[in-house]
Amino acid sequence: MSESVICGIPYKDFLIRVEEFHGYRSPGILLGGIMVENALRELGPTPYLNVVTETVVCLPDAVQLLTPCTIGNGFLQILDWGKFALTAYDRMTLNGVRVWLNYERMADYPLINSWFDRSTENRQKPVFEEIAKEILSATSNLINHRSVRLYRALKISQRKPTGLCPKCGESYPLDHGPTCTSCQGEAYYE
Ligand SMILES: [Zn+2]
Fold first, then answer.
1. How many angstroms does the Cα of residue 73 sit away from the middle of ligand 1?
2. Residue 155 in contact with residue 91, Cβ under 8 Å?
3. 160 C-alpha to ligand 1 centroid (Å)
4. Scanning 3, 35, 80, 93, which has its CA 20 to 30 A from the CA of 155?
5. How far is the CA of 172 from the centre of ligand 1 (A)?
6. d(CA 156, CA 19)
7. For the whole model, what pTM was predicted?
8. How far apart, in Å, are the Cα atoms of 31 and each of 120, 123, 129, 134, 176?
9. HEC profile for 77-98?
């Protein structure tokens, strides 16, 4: 187990990086890391790498930990679809590889299976070291992949015209309406 390598990073170092970046050791980041590794391996050398994840949990952190794609630089997009899947692609060629989990084979991995199963109420949090052992032994066995072609690059590169909100005086994209989103009643603060 200790000789496992995730995206070129020895397992022990990977765990340290996970703790630094994500705050704690998480099965989702480990599984996500192996998914990222699979996608990049299948995709081959990609000068203009972008990634899109189909869930807001775990996978975005695995991508940011292991690739140059981040939320802030726009090369990582996050879809709130609740699906544990991601696509790595070249934003110039639009050729990509989507990876997702093989839910049929998951039955062979009881800890991963129950960790994923949100149907039962008394779902127990697994001990990380135990489920990690299963994830590392499963490796690519649990991960499906296929080549995909994107309709378009997902990074929003068009600059929108901005102006000052007449209510709060802050700058906002004018296509949001006559005032900024916050002043339209969407504020998350008092
Ligand atoms: Zn405003």
1. 25
2. yes
3. 17
4. 35
5. 8
6. 31
7. 0.89
8. 22, 19, 13, 10, 38
9. EECCCCCCEEEEEECCCCEEEE
**What is the distance in angstroms between the CA of the first residue and the CA of the last residue of the chain?**
50
C-alpha 78 to ligand 1 mean position (Å): 26
Residue carrying structure tokens 């998914």? 35
Query: How confident is the prediction along the chain (190 residues), in pLDDT tens digits per residue?
Result: 457 999 999 999 999 999 999 999 999 999 999 999 999 999 999 999 999 999 999 999 999 999 999 999 999 999 999 999 999 999 999 999 999 999 999 999 999 998 887 776 666 778 999 999 999 999 889 999 999 999 998 877 778 899 999 999 999 999 999 999 999 999 999 9
> What does the alpha-carbon distance between residue 165 and residue 181 come to, in Å, rounded to a whole number?
9
- Amino acid identity of 43? L
Query: Which residue reads 């052992």 in tokens?
Result: 133
Domains in the chain, ordered, with CATH? Answer: 5-149 (3.30.1330.130), 160-190 (3.30.60.80)
Q: Which of 169, 159, 147, 38 is nearest to 90 (CA)?
A: 147
pLDDT for the residue numbered 89: 97
Q: What is the distance in A from the centroid of ligand 1 to the CA of 163?
A: 10
Find the radius of gyration of the CA atoms of the chain: 20
The pLDDT of residue 122 is: 63
Distance CA 45, CA 40 (A): 8
For residue 17, the model assigns a pLDDT of 96
